[in-house]
Amino acid sequence: LVDSSAVTNGLTEFRVIANMEEGNFDSESAFGYSVDNLSPNTPTGLTGLFDNGAVELSWDIATDIDFNFYEIYRNDELLDYTIDNSYSDTQLIASLLDYYIVSYDENGNFSESSELFTITVENPPGDLTQDFIVNVNDIVYMVNIILAAGTDDYTPTEIEMQFGDIAPISGLDGIINVVDIVALVNIILSN
User: Fold this and answer.
1) How far apart are CA 117 and CA 64, in angstroms?
2) Whole-angstrom distance, CA of residue 127 vs CA of residue 187
């Protein structure tokens, strides 16, 4: 017996042939098929962490024999598809992020949504490039701010001040200066 699907109707012929003392019995043919309308198991064990500018998700591997793929959702919007039981989300914005996954089988049936995994993603102090990683690019950005602020026509933006005025020694003095560069270098070296 074969399940009907988009590829085949699954129609199977059945007959009964019996060998009896009175002779052989041969029934008329009958036809039938199975419909796979059973949902796959709900994905379990969804967890994650924020590491090196990405949210790294993982979950328990699917046990359904007709498993096909997973859909990954972030904040109730389809993010991507995968056949693996892990996913790296690198297209981030600083915010509260809710993730869940749905499992699909080969016949298009889908599971209930997994339990929700929620994580808050924030840019670290000194992350002037807003890429969730503090590195030499942020030092270059900070030097450019200091050089531009030395002219009369440039004022650092609110975000540049939030992530650039970071030196605890200067007591967050409202300006971006060499002391902040030293603090940024120390952040990079401590990671």
Assistant:
1) 22
2) 10
Q: In the predicted model, is pLDDT for residue 78 greater than 90?
A: yes
What is the DSSP pairing of strand 77-82 with strand 67-74? antiparallel
Element (H or E) spanning 14, and its range?
strand 12-14
Burial-class residue 37 by CB neighbours within 10 Å (0-12, 13-18, 19+).
exposed
Predicted confidence band of residue 98 (pLDDT cuts 50, 70, 90): very high
Give the pLDDT confidence score for residue 1 in this predicted structure: 63
Q: Give me the mean pLDDT over the 59-88 stretch.
A: 97
Looking at the chain, the whole-number percentage of residues with pLDDT higher than 70 is 94
Cβ-contact 36, 61 below 8 angstroms = no
Q: Is the dihedral of CA 141, 146, 148, 154 positive or negative?
A: positive
Query: Confidence band (pLDDT; 50, 70, 90) for 189?
Result: confident
Q: Which residues contact 99 (CB under 8 A, 6 or more apart)?
A: 46, 48, 55, 57, 72, 73, 74, 79, 89, 116, 117, 118, 119
Q: What is the DSSP string of 48-106?
A: EEEETTEEEEE-PPP--TTEEEEEEEETTEEEEEESSSEEEE----SEEEEEEEEEEET
Q: Tell me the Ramachandran region of residue 158: left when phi exceeds 0, alpha when psi lies from -120 to 50, beta otherwise.
A: alpha
